[in-house]
Every structure is written in C-alpha cells, then in structure tokens.
Amino acid sequence: MVGVPPSVPAVRDASVAGVPVPRRPAEAAGSWDRVRWWYESVLGWPTAPGAPVRLRTGVRFDVLDVPAKAGHAALKRLERRGTGPRRPGFPVALRGERMLLLVAAGGADELPGLLEWLEWGSLPLDLTAAGAGGLVEAPLGPVADVTGQGGVGGAGAPAPASGSVLPPPRPPDRDGRLRRGTAVWLRPPEQGCEVEASLPTLSAVGGVGSAPDLARLVHTLATECHRVRLSPPRAPIL
Fold it and tell me: For burial by CB atoms within 10 Å, which of 2, 40, 113, 140 has the most?
C-alpha cells in the first residue's frame, strides 16, 4: 500500500468528523469587521457595536430620510438647476424604498425650523432626519442588484463615481443577492476628499462647490415628498 503523508488523513478525518477546514483569515474575520474597519479607519466615522454595522449620526454628519421616488426626483431637479450634487458631491444611499442623504452635522436639528420657515410645517411630509444620538445602517458598496431591475438604484440610477472608495461588501444571501432592504451607496464618498466639506449646510447660502445649501435641499425634498403623497397609487399588476 502506498504511503500517505500523515497530515493529509488528519485534515480529511477532521472534515468528516464535522470539524470545518480552516478558512482564509479574511473569511474567518467576517465581512462586517472589514466594513467596520473601513468606516472607522478610512473615513473616521464612528460606529455602534454589533452587526450589521451602524453609523452614529450627529458626529460627522446627519441624515435626511425620504421616499426613494421623491429623493430621485429632487436630485434630478437640483442637477438641472446646476446646484445639485454632481459628482463629486455629497453622499447619498438607498435602503429599500428609502433614500438617505448625508448633510452636515446639526442639520437634523434645523429641519423642523426650516420646514416651518419654508411653509411646509403644516403638511404631513414623509421627510425625517437622524441627528445627535441616532444610528443608521452603514451602506455597502453597490455590488449587487438589490432591486431586481438591473442595478442597485434600479433603472436610470447613476453609476458610482470612478474615483470612489467603497466599503467591503457583505457576502450575499443564499439566493445570490444582498438581503432586501440592505443599505447601499448610490453616491458613495469620494476618494481623496474631505467628505464633510461636501455636505449641505445651513450656512452655505447658495451652495458651496457641488452641494446645495441645506434650505434649498430641504425645500426641493419637501416639494417632491408632497408630490409623491398626492400622486395616485399604481394599479396592481394582475
């Protein structure tokens, strides 16, 4: 009988006995650890313990949360006016049917007063904000079709900027896709730029660089949220 090195049967026997074969270090560490490292070490954004990774708002940025339909329409309107987030611009993410727009820290506190000043305060807008003490799910890189429409943002969604640095993706579910509702970057943070400098602020009247001022952004979002609320529901597909 031909001799076999003793190390080979040991690995095979362990596998048969139910002991997993050692994995590569990157796999064993878990992709959430890589995602957390990317946000904390590359961007310097604080995170909360646990998985999925969640970002702390109110420290480096706040988040405006609107229906994705209203968010897409608002971004298009701002771009047509030449005051919108052309790349490079402020980061925007999608989470299911919601759009998350990053604004300067303190923007969440300004939102109620801005809506009143812009005469939107008395209307039931689906426009909320996360600020100091809040948490949002850390968006992942646009690496999978989470909409079933041929792209992260669906038909017509812009591709990520060529110079973007994306966080490591989470392994997809068993069906080959990220779980439904996973937050993904539509406009990811740009490589080699100070992200906070690109965020809309209340003091940046008229906009700085490619970002509109916060008042203009909120007014445009509120207008589109109101239009979405008044639009007739789509007929069910039989």
Answer: 140
1 within domain boundaries: no
Residue 195 DSSP SS3 = helix
Joined tokens for residue 71: 């968010």
Total structural domains within the chain: 1
Residue 6 falls inside a structural domain: no
List pLDDT tens digits, range 16-42. 444 444 444 344 345 788 889 989 988
* Ranges under pLDDT 70 in the chain: 1-30, 82-88, 142-178, 191-193, 204-211, 233-238
For 224, the 3-state DSSP assignment is helix
The contacts of residue 30 (CB under 8 Å, 6+ apart) are 51
Distance of CA 71 to the CA centre of its chain: 13
2 in a domain, yes or no?
Answer: no
Q: Which domain holds residue 60?
A: 29-230
Helical H runs in the chain? 7-16, 25-29, 31-37, 68-80, 107-117, 214-230
pLDDT tens-digit readout, 185-199: 998 887 656 788 889
pLDDT value at position 238? 54
Assessment of whether the complete model's pTM goes beyond 0.90: no
Residue 220 and residue 182: Cα distance in Å, rounded? 26
List of E strands, the chain: 47-48, 54-56, 62-67, 92-95, 98-103, 128-130, 135-137, 183-187
CB neighbours (10 Å) of residue 7? Answer: 8
Q: What is the dihedral of CA 74, 76, 77, 81, to 10 degrees?
A: 140
Q: State how far the alpha carbon of 67 is from the alpha carbons of 86, 97, 148, 173, 207, in Å.
A: 20, 6, 18, 25, 24
